[in-house]
Amino acid sequence: MLILTRTASEAIMVGGDLRVSVSKVRGDLATFTVEPDASLPYHSDLTIGETLKVAANTSLTVLGIRGRQVRIGVDAPKSVTVDREEVHLRKESERRARNRLANRRPIVRRFMERFTAAVMG
Description:
Shape: elongated
CATH topology: Tick-borne Encephalitis virus Glycoprotein, domain 1
Number of helices: 1
CATH class: Mainly Beta
């Protein structure tokens, strides 16, 4: 079980396409918004010890609430990625940058080959 702490308006990304955010926290009650890809979001209120199934093999359990912070236990198989939303966004940005760089390499290589041939030949 992965344990994360989130406050109101912060989210967890499950499997890269399922966003689960903490909508609000009041006393011992936390409201979660689950946003599946290409579907309407749904809301669920949970108290400490309650579990919400968010996917076929993934569930969230409220382990504790302190002030505005909710301590969440995520039970998912190792093959399912679970990240804080900000980490997920950073990984996506880095992946896009790597892809852009990989797409540019053949152009740079051709330029260098032509440049070398022009200088040497």
